[in-house]
Design goal:
The protein is of the alpha+beta class. Helices cover 29% and strands 30% of the residues.
Length: 101
């Protein structure tokens, strides 16, 4: 979370491996948000470089409140992180990251 807060892309890349799979599920996104995401990045990425490209496309902004320890739920090898950030034109963007170790 600290690397994300600082937009430290090389630091984030160290957390991902060549078998990393990042999927952006837009099923519940509005049409404007869905279009913005698809214009900036892929929705299915494999490997560390592709995964980091998502974070490059959507950097943390100054007023973003990032998830804290209470926003991370782990059960066995799976952790879920939830957050909501405000974005002009699309409103609040709710995000859930699921990480499997």
């Amino acid at each position: 979370l600290q690397c994300r807060r600082r937009n430290d892309l090389p630091g984030l890349q160290k957390f991902f491996g060549r078998n990393t799979i990042l999927h952006v599920n837009l099923d519940q996104a509005g049409s404007m948000l869905s279009t913005v995401v698809k214009m900036r990045t892929a929705t299915d990425m494999v490997g560390a470089e592709e995964a980091v490209s998502y974070y490059k496309a959507f950097p943390v902004e100054t007023n973003d409140v990032l998830p804290g320890p209470d926003d991370v739920q782990c059960q066995g090898p799976i952790c879920k992180v939830q957050s909501t950030v405000p974005r002009l034109a699309v409103g609040n963007v709710k995000d859930e990251g699921v990480f499997t170790w």
